Amino acid sequence: MNTKELINVLILSDLQLPVGGFVYSWGLESYIYSGFEIGSVIQVIKAYIEEGPLESELYACKAAYSSFGKDGEIAKINQIFSAMKYLPASHNMSIKLGKNLLRFAHFTLKIPIPDEPKHIHYPIAFGYVGRFLEIDLKTLLTTYAHTSVKALMNALLRCYPFSVYDAWAFTIDMSNQIESVVKKSLNLKSWTKIYINTLLWDLYIHKHKFHETRLFEG
Predict the structure, then answer these.
(1) What is the pTM of this model?
(2) What are the domain boundaries of the chain?
(3) Which 3-state string (H, E, C) describes the chain?
């Protein structure tokens, strides 16, 4: 990896990247609000890595990366991924983050925004931007996966008295699982090979708006 590629990776993996991710808890706040103990919440995060949600995002990212420059392909990928985001809260969150990432990439990195579709999901935008920046695909997917887990742990730290040392220990402990799901995503040839278990994630993201007090939008 050359210096330019490393800098681009560090930019995309920075949790302070102004895409708005810091205002979401991805449903974790709802779990805690409902009385889940920390052990159960950690199991939910593990399920995100191991049982489909992260895998589907990585495959969408890879598909956008591989289809860069092909007319109409990004729109097709976006349509398929939209079908997986069937609840409005989860769908809208992904679209908002994707829109913000493309806006940042356009004004800061001078990357052109694709004309179609008008609204792109976050992992698809991530793959599009990563290809434009000429980041190696495996490196890009690993960056997405690791950053996603770090974002979940940061959200957990803000809504539960959880030690930052324990958060980092968990992230490090899950490195093998992250490596495994990245490898699996690289080898996947079709959307139909992905098993997705997002029911609890979607349910608690949906429940979030009904809380009397909230730290996050969703």
Answers:
(1) 0.90
(2) 26-210
(3) CCHHHHHHHHHHHCCCCCCCHHHCCCCHHHHHHCCCCHHHHHHHHHHHHHCCHHHHHHHHHHHHHHCCCCCCHHHHHHHHHHHHCCCHHHHHHHHHHHHHHHHHHHHHHCCCCCCCCCCCCHHHHHHHHHHHCCCCHHHHHHHHHHHHHHHHHHHHHHHCCCCHHHHHHHHHHCHHHHHHHHHHHHHCCCHHHCCCCCHHHHHHHHHHHHCCCCCCCC
Go through the chain and tell me how many residues it has.
218
Angstrom distance (rounded) from CA 7 to CA 10:
5
State yes or no: pLDDT of 67 exceeds 80.
yes
Residue 211 or residue 169, greater confidence: 169
Tens digit of each residue's pLDDT (9 = 90 or more) over 100-114: 999 999 998 888 888
Q: How many CB atoms lie within 10 A of CB 169?
A: 11
Structure-token pair, residue 94: 């992904």
Q: What is the pLDDT, as a whole number, of residue 98?
A: 93
CA distances from 163 to 29, 51, 146 (A): 16, 26, 19
Q: Confidence band (pLDDT; 50, 70, 90) for 16? A: confident
In the CATH hierarchy, which top-level class contains the domain 26-210? mainly alpha
